[in-house]
Each structure stands twice: as C-alpha cells, then as structure tokens.
Design goal:
Layout lengths: L12 H15 L1 H7 L13 H22 L7 H22 L13 H11 L5 H30 L6 H15 L5 H6 L7 H30 L7 H13 L5 H26 L6 H11 L2 E3 L1 H19 L13 E5 L9 E3 L9 E5 L6 E3 H11 L4 H10 L6 H4 L5 H17 L6 H26 L17 H10 L5 H13 L6 H20 L5 H9 L6 H10 L1
Parallel strand pairs: 2-4
Antiparallel strand pairs: 1-5, 3-4
Helix pairs in contact: 1-2, 1-3, 3-4, 4-10, 5-6, 6-9, 7-9, 11-12, 11-18, 13-14, 14-17, 14-18, 17-21, 18-19, 18-21, 19-20, 21-23
InterPro entries: DUF885
Protein name: DUF885 domain-containing protein
Amino acid sequence: MSNTTTPAGGPLPRQVADAYVDALVELDPITGTFLGVAESSGRLPDLSPTGQEAVAQLARTTLEQLTEAEARPGADSPAEQVCARLLRERLTAELAVHEAGEGLRAVSNIGSPLHAVREAFTLTPADTEDDWSALARRLRAVPGALTGYRAALQAGLDRQLPGGPLQVATVIGQLGEWIGTDRSWFAEFTAPGPASLRAELDEAAAVATGALGELRDWLRDVYAPAVEGAPDVVGRERYARLARYYNGADLAPEEAYAYGWSEFHRLLAEMEAEAEKVLPGAKTPWEALAWCDEHGEAVEGVEETRQWLQSLMDEAIDTLDGTHFDLAERIRQVESKIAPPGSAAAPYYTQPSLDFARPGRTWLPTMGATRFPAYDLVSTWYHEGVPGHHLQLAQWVHVADRLSRYQTTVGMVSANVEGWALYAERLMDELGFLSSAERRLGYLDAQMMRAVRVIIDIGMHLELEIPADSPFHPGERWTPQLAHAFFAQHSSRPADFVESEIIRYQGIPGQAIGYKLGERVWLQGREAARARHGAAFDLKAWHMAALSQGSLGLDDLLTELSAL
C-alpha cells in the first residue's frame, strides 16, 4: 500500500483511499485481478443485491473515514486534497447510482457484471500449474456469480426497474455465441492448460458453460417477456445521474448537445476537403472511405494485423519517447491482442497490473473479418495504445506509489481517460503522423464518430429536437431509430458496428459523450497552461505532469491542467 506511514493522529485521505482499495478487492476479486492481486485469481464477486449493498456500505463507511481524515494535520496539502476530492466525488456518484437501483437493471452489450466475469478470465495469470489451478477454481465460481447476477435482475423486476429490451436480446445472443455449438468459449480458453490438469479444467469449463446456458435460458424465458415494452432510453433524471458517474461533472446537457453539433459541422467541412484528395469528385467523405475499404491501404490476415498493430505502437513509442514524452522502461512495453469472440465491436485497452507483470494490452475484435483497412486502424491504435490509453494508464500505475493506488486504478473517471485518448489522436495529427490523405480522413472519421456520439447519446435519451441547420431530419425529435440512421449515414463503420454502438449507448447512457467532452477539457487545459507560460511552455514537461496526476473528474481536470 502506498503512503503506509500513518501519522499519530490517524490516517490521511490518501491512506483512507488505499484502505478502500484493499477492502474493495476483498469484496470484488475481479477488481483484484485488474490490479494483479494473485489471491483474487480463484474467486468471483457476489453480484447479488446483498453483494452490491456490501460494496455500497464500504463506500459509506469510507466517506465517514474521509471526513475524519480531512480534519487531521497534514490533510490540507495539495496532494491530500486532490485525492480527497476524487474519493468523495467518486464514492458519492457511485452511491447515487446504487441507491437508484441501477445495479438491479445492469444489462448491456458491454461493461455489465456479466461481461466483467468473462473479461476477468482474459486477465488472470495463466503461466504456471498453480495459475491454472486458480483458474479452475474461478471457473467453478461462475455459477454462483451468475446466480447472484440473476437475483439482482429479478430484484430489479420486483422493484419495477427493468433493463432495456434491446440490451436483453443482445446479451442473449452474446451468451449463445459464448456457449457455442461444438465448443464453448470457456472450453477454448482452457485448451492451452497443462495436461496434468486436463480433466479438472475440462470439467470446470463445462460447469461454467452450464451456468451461461442457465442464465441465457432465464433471460430468454423469464426476463425478456417481463421487460417487453420497457423503454430503451432513460430520460433526464437517470441520464443526469449516470452522466455524473461517467464524467465526474454535473453536465449541462443542452450545452453539451450544442457543442456536439458544432463539432459535427466543423469536422464535416474538414472531411469533405480531405475526401477530395482521396477520391476527387466524391459526393460525401464516406463515399471516399468506401473506396478506401475496397482499394486503399489494408492489412490482410488476423495474425498479420495483430503484428502490424504491435509494430505501429512500437514505432510510436520509439519516436515519441524523449521528444514529446519521457517514458519509464516498463511503460515502453505494450501488447497487441485479438479480442475473444463474442465481444462488442469496438477495440479496447486493459491497464497493466500494479507490478507490471501483466503489461498494458490493446484488443482488436475482428467480427469475423480478415482484411482491415489501415485508415480505420491507425488513429484507433493511437487512441487505444500509444500515445493514448497506454501512455496515460501505464503512467498512472508507474506513479501509484507517489499518489495512491485509488487515484491510479479504481478511481478512474471514464471521461478523463477517453478524453486523453481522443486528445492523443489529435496530437498525432498535429505532429504529422497521419502521413497520407487516407489516414487523415480516417482520423477525421473517428473524430466525427465521437461528435455523433454526443449528439445522439444526449439526443435520444432526452428526446431532444434536431436543430434546424441539421442535414438530417431537422425539427424532429430523436429516437433510437433516428440515432441508428444518423450514425450509419455519418460513419465509415460497417452495419454490425453501427448496431453494436447504438445498443452500447442505450445500455451505458452518459459514457459515450465523455470522449469529446473530455478532449475539450484536455485541449482547454493545454492552451491555458501555454498562455500562462508563454514562450517557456514545454509540451513534453506538460504531458508528463498531466499524465502523472492520476484520475480526476472533469470538474477538477481543467483547473489542474491549467495550473501545470
């Protein structure tokens, strides 16, 4: 634990924060696995209402301890105050979500308790026979975890808190894919295990797969009929609560919605200019990108693409280190991986363990494809890998002993990290890394997707009016169907990706807006620091100071970035 020397008067805020992490790991072994705690490997959390309430009670107790800690000598130092503000804001936001019963309706195609259970296996060590023995225990714990999850969903039904019907249908389909026909995902996962444990692993995988089947059947036969007709959008009150949780700020939704539209119009003009370079005479930028899909730069083969993405990140590290960043040696290691079947369509990143025994990793869902256009991958891997999520989140782990483990791990605010990653894409454009018109058009398309997210995530959940200067259905009010059509018309992504994204926005409201809103704060903070320092402004020093702050919500992020 960092900051372990407790003053005679009692713990200070950073010690309270790290004690919370220790206690949370006991309640939630999946969090322990993300942090690299070996003792967590054979366990899964209690996902039932009782288990959820235990986590909430820990938050309440920690807030009481924090109030006492803030009154102690030494608690007024800047480092203690920043940690205290984050801990109070995060736990308060989490309690608001819990007390509204959101954990009793947590069904989505990404980021649900069900998905966390499966993802935990991909991050659990699997190098030794002891590791595989722990994995067998964790596999046998799947039925209990999913029984608890089902109990939570049933409690939601009892309280008239239904999940969204589209989310439910999607998860039933995902479970079918994980169960498989000839061989389950768990059977595939355990296939590389040692021969000495073969029978045990096969049996444990069958137990875990059986639990998936029971959950699927219950969702199909009991839960889906019970939520039929429930809305797939959440309304203003729920949206405000969830947006606070994902962004660390009380947002003004109409202002954010207007900003999304302003970015849409700016980016559309830039895309039209770049598309003319790619395919002269193209009627829309997406016609030019469709041409790139067929005739442009591409990588053939899944393993070849994984290796190409690895080389892209390695090249970025070699070029940026020493010029725009100062990277510790252990941060220079990042792995490119292929996402397991049945994942959502979007690529993602997983943070290193606290001891860096498990490095940072990027994950590419292939969705059955074997050919991958480069224009779409380059900017995305600057976002997911280097200088995006990997440089920020690995740097957090690197400085965890100077801050607190809470600030650098479980206190993460989505809009902070997604905002940095989108800023990282823009930085690579500013530095000239998007060396062809195709790649730059792909970058602008990725930026456009994040602007569209702001528009439709807020628009459909609040059922806002489409403005008069919109090229799409002006004057009408947003529905999920209009959101789907708008996204499809203003993105190069294939139909299955578009569908997956719209389902994602309905299942985790308020999260998708954090990319663009977070990027805005990172840019504003950089410009404020530049204005304060004038000619003495050092971008490399600012980057490293900014990346060494640990987590901050958007309410605090602009102030802290501007002061660097």
